[in-house]
Amino acid sequence: MLDAILFDLDGTILDTLEDLRDAVNYAISEFGYNKISKEDVRKNIGNGILMLIKRCVNFNLENIDVMHQKFKEYYFKNCNVHTKPYPYIYELLDYIKEKNIKMGVVTNKVYTAAKELIDSHFDGYFDLVLGDQMNIGLNRKPDPNIIYYAMDKLGVKNKNKVLYIGDSDVDIETVANANILGAFVSYGYRDKELLLEKSDKVFDDIKALLQYIKSLNE
User: Fold this and answer.
1) How far is CA 32 from CA 12, 26, 64, 119, in A?
2) Cα 95–117–97 angle (5° rounding)?
3) Are 131 and 93 a contacting pair, CB within 8 Å?
4) Could you tell me if 65 and 90 lie in one domain?
5) pTM score, two decimals?
6) Into how many domains does the chain fold?
7) Domain limit, last residue, from 52, 78, 104
8) From residue 1, how far is each of 15, 93, 125, 139, 214 by CA, in Å?
9) pLDDT tens figures, 69-117
10) Are residue 100 and residue 207 in the same domain, yes or no?
11) Are residues 63 and 141 part of one domain?
12) Beta strands 14-15 and 84-85: pairing type?
């Protein structure tokens, strides 16, 4: 039986690509860059906002601080325009809740946006939300300390009873660094082939993921 399940946010429980794309385009437009697509965001997301912008402008660092600030100004006002939960995510969360397994979100997304989205779409489901820029002295994933911090806050001590669910190579590295269980979804923001190179616990949809979680609780 699992004691806790931790989730990534973007590409795992919420499809946030359109709102992220719009925010990046708002931030970079006045500096002469071509508009990016959802696919551009999908390929470049995973290590925080600043890195996303750097990748989208091919690491041209001129005006990067201004673009970063413009992104935040826009996104924090418009982070929930097109964002939506993935199909069957509520069925998965309902099962976990029925089993009295503690749930948390551990994301590299800025905390204020993460908390707003979780409160909007998943009110009452999660016991904990951790994100970037919380001023708690922790590095972003794949640093394992943010996982250990979440476990401590949830009152969970046995790493063998903690499952982390994500959609990226960063998440796979996080699981390995923290030495906990991991499951990874291929419907998110990384190609399935990339995930399979690093893990054999890759699931194409939430129904398949739910069956795996049930198998861990038999």
Assistant:
1) 32, 11, 13, 36
2) 15
3) no
4) no
5) 0.94
6) 2
7) 78
8) 29, 16, 19, 29, 9
9) 999 999 999 999 999 999 999 999 999 999 999 999 999 998 999 999 9
10) yes
11) no
12) antiparallel
